[in-house]
Amino acid sequence: MRVTDRRTVYEGRFVRVVEKRVEGANGARGVWEAIERTNIHGSGAVVIVARTKDGQLLFEKNWRAGTESRVIQFPAGLTDLKGESEEEAARRELLEETGYAATQLIPVFLSPLSAALTGTRAMHYFAPDVEFVGKPTGKDIEEIEVLKVPTGEADEFMLNLPDGEELDLQVPGILWVLRMRGLI
Fold it and tell me: Helix (H, G, I), strand (E, B), or coil: what is residue 1?
């Protein structure tokens, strides 16, 4: 599959919709629409799997406009500050959203966030032994509740969410990778 032409059909403050004309290996042609972020640098995003010194994973219950619901996910954010490394963005986002600071960040993997919709990728980090240093500093309109779950109870937590809450399915996938790599 290859892209033969691109055309911006809408550009907003933070995203643009791009129409991509594509051609398959068999000569078939078509048009796909994709979303591109206009306010990112590097890969686009970071995700932080943070574990406290007493073995609790930090999850977030975060209201998301796309689903118009509360979604359980890990602390995450955009690499939207020019000149900031992905590791610096991960530290900043963790502190802003949770009030926890990471002394160590272990890069785990880079993956697409929603490959059928956008090219934005997220660098995933594992942050062992994070410490609470004060109230979250985020100033955005986001409504984030930090949830602490013992590492050994994470699966049960994800399987028994309260009504009205949704699980971002990247969460169990990330935890699986961390388990396979012996990090948790």
Answer: coil
Output the six-digit token pair for 64.
């998301």
pLDDT of 143-172, one tens digit each?
899 999 999 999 999 999 999 999 999 999
How many CA atoms lie within 13 Å of 53's alpha carbon, on the beta-carbon side? 6
pTM of the shown model: 0.91
What are the DSSP E strand ranges found in 12-143? 15-23, 29-37, 44-52, 56-64, 69-73, 76-78, 100-101, 106-112, 121-132
For domain 44-180, which architecture applies? Alpha-Beta Complex (3.90)
Where in the sequence of the chain do the CATH 3.90.79.10 domains occur? 44-180
Q: Name the one residue in this structure whose structure tokens are 């004060």.
A: 134
